[in-house]
Amino acid sequence: MLSYEPHDSLAHRLDPRAKLAVQVGFALAAFAHTTPRGLAILTALAGCVLAAARLSPIAALREARYALPFLVAGPAIAALTPGPPWIAASQAVVPALASYRVLVVLVVSVAYVRTTRVRDSRTAVQSLVPGRPGRFLGVGVALVFRFLPVLLADLSRTRTAMRARLGSERGLIDRMEIVTSAGVRRAFGRADRLGVALRARCFAWNPTLSRLRFARRDVAALCFAGGLVAWTLV
């Protein structure tokens, strides 16, 4: 599940602010170099990030599987033509490169989520964005990182229950309606319980956050992020 997992990898020991800098630099480079050569370089760099996080590419792709249908649908729709020959593969090249770019960025994002505690992410955001906007963004990041895995687990349980009741024999539209309606009901129920839990625990906008400190190993990560930004500007 897309959430933090304790480990002793290099990425786990990095300061979350340095990892955020790598995220931003990687995303900028990916959107600036959407060419086969650029994406090949980015793929190699993403492999280095996964190695630092001790995360296999298969596991990272498994975490990003919910975005794969949308990434595949773009090139497929772009290849369709209103007349003969009905399918023009050349029209799908640019959308395919764009989809692969997004996939590589998602893989690097998975490495960040798996190696960074939610509390540290909130601290990093609030330290980078001062004042009330930073506190608002920090709370949003913390809630998303904690809430999203729960919603994904609910959808997975709904699909498992539907298959156990021979729901797989229904039509595609019926299956989509069942999973969607159940997911929406569970999401609203989770949101209501989350609000009650926050009030019961005296939720504060300015809690005591974890202490962050740059180390020597973070310098290498910042240099890596700076190199990505420089490559973006070339």
What is this structure's SSE topology?
Layout: H1 10-13, H2 16-32, H3 36-53, H4 57-63, H5 68-79, H6 93-115, H7 118-128, H8 131-164, H9 172-200, H10 216-233
Notes on the protein architecture:
The protein has 234 residues and is mainly alpha-helical. The protein folds into 2 domains: 1-117 and 212-234, no CATH class; 131-209, no CATH class. The chain contains 10 helices and no strands. The mean pLDDT is 84.
Helix/sheet category: mainly alpha
> Poorly predicted ranges (pLDDT <50, ≥5 residues)?
none
- The tally of helices reads 10
How many beta-strand runs? 0
Which key features would you list for this structure?
globular; mainly alpha
Offer a concise description of the structure.
With 234 residues, the chain is mainly α. It is 74% helix and 0% strand.
